Amino acid sequence: MEKINLSFKDSNIEPILDSIYESNIAVKLINELNLSKEDVRKNYELILSYLKINKHCEKCKSMNECDHSTKGYFYQLKKDMDNQLTDCFIICKQYENYYQRKQNLLYTTFDENELLSTTQMDFLFDNVNLLGNSFLNKIASVLKGNKVCGDFIVIKNSKVRLKLIKALAYGLLSKNKVAIVKFSSLLQNIKAEFNNTDANSLKIVLESDILIIDGLGNESITTWSRDEILLTILDQRIQNEKTTILCSEFTLDELKKLYKLSYNDEVKANQIIEKIKEIKM
Questions:
Q1: Cα distance from N-terminal residue to C-terminal residue, the chain
Q2: Does 148 score more than 60 pLDDT?
Q3: 70: Cβ contacts below 8 Å, ≥ 6 apart
Q4: How far apart are CA 71 and CA 222, in angstroms?
């Protein structure tokens, strides 16, 4: 659409009307409201405001791209009870999706805005083959409301893995209470909360409908992180039938070596691996 000159006099509005009818967005609005040519002529200023304010809305893909002063709201025109054209603001579809997912994101150690952006899904669709059919079938079952113990994903490329799980979290957030964390960051947060009775990251993580843990094996492994935190998370979520998705660059055999902290420590390492295998079932 060509730039509309707002300085036309009412006595010479034909160029403005021509510009309005050249706009696909304006024509769509005119058809939806069943506006006559006289209606358009009478309300051209309102229609111009509609086009100006919503000029980026048609191609908007996420709340991050919203340039409105009132983010998440769409400037709408409608007919009132007297069949006169009037304006109002309504919540846009992007905001509805964003707000719903924001409410369902219980806890994260990642950037919240990234997780709530629709652009995450593009990467998932392009790389879905990396997740495998078995895993995808489980996710489909979760989205249908079924209980699934979870799974263990091994992807060596940490950047690719992180993008995939962020996209996965975005999809799951539509209907589930989700926590998504980098395990090393979660451990740091739990430590920082030792003297803060109002914060309880571990409790939220344990109670979330779906928990996604990335970077398993990349944390600074101690008996505390392994036995009191990781084992507690795995054990309680299995007992409470909560879905847990574990992501790592390490295989189970590699993780077993990492979690064996001393020569006589194989029992605890095996316990972790067995819990992960139980989640995969």
A1: 56
A2: yes
A3: 89
A4: 45
Q: What does the pLDDT look like over 24-67, one tens digit per residue?
A: 888 888 898 898 889 888 898 888 888 887 777 767 666 666 66
Mean pLDDT computed over 198-218: 92
Identity of residue 63: M
Q: Is 274 left (phi over 0), alpha (psi -120 to 50) or beta?
A: alpha
Q: Report helix, strand or coil for 73.
A: strand
Q: Work out the number of other CB atoms within 10 angstroms of the CB of residue 244.
A: 25
Distance CA 88, CA 214 (A): 44
Distance CA 12, CA 19 (A): 13
What residues have CB less than 8 Å from 191, skipping those under 6 apart? Answer: none
Distance of CA 148 to the CA centre of its chain: 21
Residue 34 burial by Cβ neighbours in a 10 Å radius (0-12, 13-18, 19+): exposed
Calpha distance 196→29 (Å, rounded): 54
